[in-house]
């Protein structure tokens, strides 16, 4: 916004200088002055654009320059004697603005109406000054003209032409430098024009600085809906799991949900605020414990029983466990079922592994107990954290036995909205506010 205000100010100042210079010297404002002012204004917009976006969106420098000068050079002298300044200005806007618009569209496949608005604004200001100088105070101008000798006036108009030529050379040089440095067309296309930009604008959890990543991910997954592309990229799923550049240290004080996955870890010495016994020697947070006891009570009423197989684990414990698995499986295999130290949900005291057979997780899949937990866990504030077919998102194979306490409200929302992973929920409800 600041840059746009500066741009408008610059347009005003350029016109002010041009017209006041004419006024001061008693010269009637002519097409050359207007041409110069409008040309300057265009370049002000150009510079403002660059400051604002770091790239020039609207057309290419050299061609923009050409469309700026050619219509002025060709048409203005022809119509100068027949039309009033106002009509000339309108024609100028149509020629320059229109051509820049077309060029911009050809170049970037998009059109920024702001461009024309800026030029229209510049010319409008110019017209107001023309009125002031030429129409409102004609007597004052006459008096100035009389004072000046004819020779001087000729000299001044020569000066204006020289200035115009200088400006042209300067612009031309600038455009050439831009072209030679190769920054122009390629960079514009890469940095500013996104394939699905318009669609991203309608997705409330799409972040502007990730448009390039969305496009890249969409290209890799042509059948995926853009809504899904966006939240997946927001969850860093376009990156390699455990990439440190995308890893965040989770805030241990987070009430819920506390997202722990292959991009969100806890510190080495992390320990939940409070842990209580959930079953025998197994400990978990008090909220998890209360909710779990509710769950097993209802389950037992139906004649079923489940046991805790694993609950809270320290980072050190997880390291030993992970290393133990590495003795028999490759690191790639182990990563699909055991998290690295610091990245396990079990560190939080909110995750439980359960089974109807003591100490045997693999027996759980396909059991009546598993089916019931799958259907009803949300009512108690739990989610089945590593669902079937979600390995792309969670990084883990299907673990029907691993449930995580997130609280009833979140579990209910996920259930109602058909959200199957905490990753998706956090993007849509925590990191971004649903409108
Ligand atoms: Zn687990």
Provide a short characterization of the protein structure.
The chain is of the alpha+beta class and 435 residues long.
CATH architect. name of the largest domain = 2-Layer Sandwich
The main sheet comes to: 4 strands, antiparallel
The number of helical elements comes to: 18
User: Numbering strands along the chain, what is their spatial order in the largest sheet?
Assistant: 5-6-8-7
Radius of gyration: 34 Å
Helix content: 55-70%
The end-to-end distance, rounded to whole angstroms, is: 24 Å
Category by helix and strand content: alpha+beta
Order of helices and strands: HHHHHHHHHHHEEEEHEHHEHEHEHH
Instruction: Tell me the number of structural domains.
Output: 3
Residue windows where pLDDT falls under 50 for at least 5 positions: 54-84, 107-111, 153-162, 178-190
What descriptors fit this protein?
435 residues; alpha+beta; 8 strands; two-stranded parallel ribbon; Muramoyl-pentapeptide Carboxypeptidase, domain 2; single chain; 4-stranded antiparallel sheet
Structure commentary:
The chain has three domains: 2-190, no CATH class; 194-234, no CATH class; 239-431, Muramoyl-pentapeptide Carboxypeptidase, domain 2 (2-Layer Sandwich). β3 and β4 form a beta hairpin. Helices cover 58% and strands 7% of the residues. It has a four-stranded antiparallel sheet with strand order 5-6-8-7. It has a two-stranded parallel sheet with strand order 1-2. The protein has a two-stranded antiparallel sheet with strand order 3-4. It has helices at 2-24, 31-53, 61-80, 85-108, 114-136, 138-147, 150-180, 185-191, 197-201, 211-220, 226-234, 286-301, 315-326, 331-335, 368-376, 391-394, 408-417, 422-431, and strands at residues 248-249, 264-265, 276-279, 282-284, 307-310, 351-355, 382-386, 399-405. 33% of the residues are buried. It is elongated, with a radius of gyration of 34 Å. The structure holds zinc ion (ZN). Zinc ion binds at residues 310, 346, 351, 353, 402.
